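Lay summary. Proteins are chains of building blocks that fold into shapes, and those shapes determine what they do. In this project we predict the shape from the chain. Here is one chain we studied, written as its sequence of building blocks.
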Amino acid sequence: MWLDHWVIGCLAPLALWILLSGLDDLFIALVRLAGVRKPFFWPPEAALDRATERPIAIFVPLWHEHPVIGQMLDRNIPAIRYRNFHVFAGVYPNDALTVRAVESASRRHPQVHVALSSHPGPTSKGDCLNSIYRRMLEYEAAHGVRFEVLMVHDAEDVIHPESLRLVNWFSGEYDMVQIPVLALPTPLRDFTHGLYCDEFAEFQSKDIPARQTLGGFLPSNGVGTGFRRDALERLAARRGGRVFDPECLTEDYETGFALHSLGCRQLFVPLRRGAEGPVATREYFPRSFRAAVRQRSRWVAGIALQGWQHHGWRAPWPQPYWFWRDRKGLVGNLVSPLAALTFLHGLLRWHAGVPHPVWLPAVCEATLGVSLVQMGLRGVLSGRIYGWRFAAATPLRMLWGNLVNYVATCMAVREFAAARRRGQSPAWRKTQHAYPAHRAAEPGRPRVGEVLAQLRVLDRDGLQSALASQPQGMRLGEHLQRMHLLTERDLYRALSIQTGLPLGAPAREDVDRLATRTLPAAAMRRWRIMPYRVDLGQLHVATDEVPSEEMTRDLSSLSSLELRFRLVQPREFDEMAEAYWPKRLSA
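And here is the predicted shape, written in a compact code that computers can read:
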């Protein structure tokens, strides 16, 4: 029948395309598996401690990020093991809630500064970053300082405590330093977010290191990227004073390519595991189908379509090969659903004796084999970070990813074509962000003892001795304090890093007496918690215990506000209780 002949006719080019793309991916995998890589030397801990801290400016572009930016700053600023840094948060005059949230954070953290754009938003991330850059110049002129390194982060980032120290160290030799980026772990049922876990684990463990080994330009991940100031100034001189491209939907990718074109040296810091987990910037990615399509359509439009529009294929070898890898998804994403249906139909009809070219089964078998190898490799790399139980669902998430990428690519092509007809750049479609309230229940989080050893509060021998003598039912921190091996301050510092909770009693001006009466006294006594501020739909709560799931559920049932916890030492909690609620708390 005519359908069979049509399917056979389509199957041949589809199988050849998928085989070609699969062999391309297999080549990158072989580069990594063969151990072909440039030598990389991690700096000793003592050398990092002795290194002069260059002034670092962290840029955080914002639009409608009032629900998360406060927690992001409260969590990251105390945890970062680097002192010589300032945060410039870019906001728009028509986003009053985010402006207010950053102003509030700046009162708590003197190194946080509001970078107000001169025009309403939203514009683009590149345009917002340029506004932040101008605000930084004003700050430098007023205070007589000069930031030597600029870093970019987003409002949802959990910054690794060692991140700035590594960027500071390697920026002495490199113009752009990229810290790995990984998705935070989520339950298996979060299928869409799990797709990001798999993809970033593979990309950061295999693709980017191989790209660097083979001499390809290093695209910025958009967050966790450190740039030397002089390199960005050279780039700005070519763009009429604009450091970042305001018209590009993926200014991070464009900046990476532009710096490489200028001859700047780029470095991707390899993934390795520390006491706090992988040394990487962690964040939540979209969890719904619609949000993932929205984000990925921007990636496709910016990297593949705008990149092709701006640069074509003109670049010194081997960059055109990396253009091919970055753009082949335009075809691959669109043909994957058709290929699956065509392959299934062809497989069924071959058994019915429908004639086909003699070479076609061999091509299909090779394509299937390469796909299975690719699937297995992704599962291995994902399992190293998230565990083998999570990695077992990788094949199903890959099928789901084909559908997400297909819809995202269709949307990107449609919107890019419409923008071209209007003579405009495609519109920036910002991703909605979320931030972890606390990470006590995260799988794979570091143990308190590991964090203490990493902080060098406790040596490995002392830790092993304490673990061997730890009484049953007693927590390690309490045991170490009884042995006089640990101070309460060091214990709470480790708990803050382990859980991602901000540490320390809030300033008096941040405590609202009315807010201290928003929860029942019985709940206060049971959980030893103190609500102290209501802001932007969130109830901020101080506690001297790491919030358990039971505590969170119980308090959530008593308030319709989103809970945001702050860790305080028992002495600090008692002082707060005495000052703000002595009678009800002690009743």
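What the prediction tells us: The chain has three domains: 1-33+148-436, 448-499, 508-586.
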